[in-house]
Structures are given as structure tokens and as C-alpha cells.
Amino acid sequence: MGFGISSQEGLIVKCRVCGGLLEHRVTDLPFKIGDSSIVVVKALPVLECRQCGETEMEDETMRRVDQVLAGVEPSSELEVIRFAA
What is the mean pLDDT of each run of 10 residues along the chain (85 residues)? Predict the structure, then answer.
């Protein structure tokens, strides 16, 4: 998975891996927290490459995901959280 990127209306964004075009999608992504916790964030808005499938998140989305992950109980092995738009 890629890093956060800035969003600008009408701007064509290309994949950092292969140069393909990125499209807005909604997907579920897993994140590993610490040594043994996995958090699945559902309904997450991402930019996904048409060619290679690499995903990127816009900066604001990445900030919000960081906030959500910071609130996860460190002792839980698996947690599923729906992303609130």
C-alpha cells in the first residue's frame, strides 16, 4: 500500500509503482498494529491503480485512519472498524 497523497479536483494522479492511472475506489484494508494486532478498516476510500492494483490514500484519509488506529485496544488480536466518511 502506498502513502498519503494530496487531493486536487480534476488532477490526474499516476501510480508511483507503475505509472498507471489511479481511480477512486472504496475497499477494505488490513493494518498491522504492534506485534500481534490486526485492524481491518472497512469501506475505506482509496485511489487504486488500474494497472497494478497499488493503493494510495489521500492525506486527509490517512490522517483519519491514523486517528482510528491510535484508538484501538492494543491487546485485541483482530478488530474490524467501518471507516466513517
Answer: 50 88 95 92 96 94 94 90 88
Q: What is the pTM assigned to this prediction?
A: 0.78
CB 16 within 8 Å of CB 52: no
At 65 the pLDDT is 96
Q: Distance (Å, rounded) from C-alpha 28 to C-alpha 24?
A: 13
Residue type, 16: R
Q: Domain residues of the chain, as ranges?
A: 23-82
> Is 23-82 in CATH node 1.10.287?
no
Grid cell at residue 19: 505509472
Beta bridge partners, 32, equal: 38
Q: Which cell numbers hold the place of 6?
A: 494530496
Distance CA 51, CA 26 (A): 17
